[in-house]
Amino acid sequence: MNLKDLWIGDPVRIVTSGKEGTFEGISSDGRARVKYRDKILLTREHNLQLYTPSQPSKLEQLKYPTTTTPQIKNPIPSNRLDLHIDVLNPALSNEVPQIILNHQLKRCKAFLENSILLKIPIITIIHGKGTGALKQEVLHLISSYPEIRHTIPQHDGGAIEVWIR
Fold this sequence. Notes:
alpha+beta, SH3 type barrels, Ribosomal Protein S8, Chain: A, domain 1, 2 domains, five-stranded antiparallel sheet, four-stranded mixed sheet, elongated
C-alpha cells in the first residue's frame, strides 16, 4: 500500500494488531498516522490495509456511543441549504462557535458535492449575514470546486446562488 494514495479519514486496519481506525496523514518520519479511538498510532505502510467498516456490535455501541442528528421535520429542498444552526441542527445551538462552524462547513461541503454529483444546475446556500465568518468560509469552499461556473449573491448578501456546470 502506498500512503500517498490514502485520503485523510480513509478506514484502515493495522495488520499486526488488528486495530481499525482512520488514516490521519503521514508523520515526519514517513509512518502512517492512524486514529484509533482517541489516540494516534504510528505504523509503517506495509503494516496497513484499507478495509470496509462493519456495523459495530451492540457492546461496542454501549462502550462508545455515537451522537445522532435529530430528524428535521420539514426536509430541506434538494436545491437549497439553510446553514442557520437552528435549522441545520438545533441540538448544536448552544455549542461553541468553532464546533458550529465546523458542522456547518461539513454539511455545506456534502451538499455541494451531492449537488454536483446529481447535476443540479442551480442551488442556493443560505449562510446569513451575521459576522461574515461563515460567508467567507462558504465562498472559500465554493472556490475549490472547478464544477462551479458562477455565483450570485442573494437576499442582500445573506445567501449565494451557485451555478454548476
